[in-house]
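Comment on both lines for my students:
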Amino acid sequence: MVGKPSVCRFFGQANPADNPGMIELADIRAAAARLQGQVLDTPCVESRTISEIAGAQVFLKFENLQFTASFKERGACNKLAQLSDDEKRKGVIAMSAGNHAQGVAYHAHRLGLRAVIVMPRFTPGVKVERTRSFGAEIVLHGDTLDESRTHALTLAAKEQLTFVHPYDDEAIVAGQGTTGIEMLDAVPELDTLVVAVGGGGLIAGIAVAAKALKPGIEVIGVQTLRFPNMYNAVKHQALPQGGSTIAEGIAVGTPGRIPQAIIEKYVDDIVLVDEGDIEQAIVMLLEIEKTLVEGAGAAGLAALLKYPERFRGKKVGLVLGGGNIDPLLLAAIIERGMVRAGRLARIRVSARDVPGSLAKITHIVSEAGANIDEVHHQRAFTMLAAQNVEIELVIQTRGRAHIQGVLHALHEGGFAAQEQ
């Protein structure tokens, strides 16, 4: 298991002449003009409760309120709006298993363009159908995003379609950067921006805009410990990557060339978060702000919760990048969050296997103010005496102290009980 890397500042100043793809504030302002009326200028407002918890003044940029529930619309719309008449006539193609697919499909349909989206075969059906509902032609190919990308490029050449890259494109980066302009227009006093990093398009665009508008502002990237591609690239590290993550939107194997050059020039730091940090952030946003955010969109808040001293006392802007999350995954995350918070607990009670024992146990739990979710008797797989039984209860409580209160009540009632 890889240890948690320390947080530190590390980036040097790149030479713009070495990076011909480097965009400027003017490119982002031009993108903002193209996007006027095409995408939402989403709210950027303070969360007082989260601010109190984090020890910083926290402002949330609700990109999960876009029509396709993701900031990806910005880059897609900016790219499509700049196509030549010939390119528009032939159509576009993109490779994506999620938000980029929907952004390209939606805005291509709105602009009357043919759109082909190549998605890996493992893509959840709900995402496939959602993308198809925007009028796109769906091609399921490959078991990985790299295999889908290769096939998309082959189709692009064969059918003369314009390939719309999810992040390694100047127009895409400039479109995503409009998020940064809107944040500083809404809250000029922001002194730190925290942005999730996958391929790097979003943070690259935001960093260019933010540093031009407010040179002293700090821009911090966030990646998962399981996919630290940009962290490795710019810090010259070799942390392993791969496997599943709930932040699938930033589970990118190879960082973008254009975003990386911008990040090395403008971004101050990148920090890593764990799966549990992201789960906690998703539940907190749902419970406190009543807003649904996917794993990648919650990464910024996860960083604040993981490194509170890093952001204490600052005015921090977080981008809630998207809200497309599978309902079953969300249900599991909520339940796991309740366990971590001590609001859902599993206890084991040993009792004589005689009539009335279970009734007495459930009465004690009820009198202690807890609600029983599940009951399971275990007679065979136990080391207890044959005339005894283990009863496993899953209970709803008010928190850790309440769990201890329930256990104390059971002990007072003559039962051996412990939390599992």
